[in-house]
Amino acid sequence: MNLIENIREGLRSIAGNRLRTILTSLIIAIGITSLVGILTAIDGIQNSVTSSFAGLGANTFSLVARQDAFRRGGRTQRQDKPIDYFDAVQFKRRFPYNATIALSAAVTGSAQAKYGSKKTNPNVLLIGGDDAYLSVKGYTVQSGRNLAQNDLTYALNVAVIGSEVASTLFERKIDPLNQLIRVSGNQYKVVGVLAKKGGLTGGGDDRIILIPLDNARALAGSQQLTFDITASVPTVSDQDEAVGEARGTMRLVRRDPLGQPDSFEIQRADNLAEKTATITGYLRMGGFGIGFITLLGASIALLNIMLVSVTERTREIGIRKSLGATPKRIREQFLIEAIVICLLGGLGGVLLGLGVGNLIASIISQGTGGFVVPWAWMGLGLVVCITVGLFAGIYPAVRASKLDPIEALRYE
User: Fold this and answer.
1) DSSP annotation string for 88-118
2) Where is the MacB-like periplasmic core domain (predicted)?
3) Whole-model pTM?
4) 188: which strand partners?
5) CA-CA distances (angstroms) from residue 10 to 21, 90, 320, 339?
6) Of the residues 209, 239, 268, which one is the last residue of a structural domain?
């Protein structure tokens, strides 16, 4: 009996026990679904997080003053002196690297905008910025225009508003452009509306009103503003060099003593992305562990079913041996049956895992991650299926091949 005939015999045996085959395949399918589903969900969530960071730009970094006390070398350090307007302007003038520099200051995070009888909740972020702020921060102007140089030079009362502010005040019934809104006691003409950005903070980036930087300074009055400096370099590969230049330039501007720590902090946009990737890596390890435990249980169940199959087919094995089947061919038949059953369950599990994983990722990321097809995890799932089939089928196969044909023919 050759290998091809052995394969056919194994498939006929599987087809003759359809209910047992289906139930056994379902056990494997559940294990593969848990493995592929968890890993697919993690990949989908990672893609959503990556796209959220892409909105900020992986090639940007910010210079900010730390406002909380921190520990360095076992000692508690005082908070940094705020970055004032002079520091920000001097840095922009003296920074030698080819980069786009945006200056901004948060006037308040609890502003309330009004238009006629309509008003927003007091959770609007009122920002003073320049004409580079929107592009560096990853915003897109949906209608109207960005702040112009004339607006900045003369500190005009104009504003660019976020999508959530626009929908709350104008309810998509009135064109927001050139309408007058009131914010923090001042009246501003809307010159631009931003496209919806969303983000990891629950849509807070859409509750923004951008006004000219000098206008914000005048609005703050005696309130001391802390300015943020955000730089965007041409490519990600330039970032390390640009950050080094920025650190040296800012130390000169702030007159930090030689040998003393920086009186500011540089926050790189890709740092948080790297930390998130590390966390998802641990999640993948945990997901693989959960899936492996589930598959281990499935393989034990398959082992038990194959042992029962050997006992039920003892007389059949005796007949085949008496007709010249060698122990090797007997082993092959049972191994083929176990592997085919695992592959049937594996294919179903991969498809279920693909759907379940993307569904979970879509719910968590609110549909921003897109559909993920993890070919690597799907291939791993099928490889694991074959491994499980070998693991669960080899002992029953060896046991069947060692049966004495005379004793097997007597079995009833």
Assistant:
1) HHHHHHH--SS-EEEEEEEEEEEE-EEETTE
2) 21-246
3) 0.56
4) 181
5) 12, 80, 13, 10
6) 268
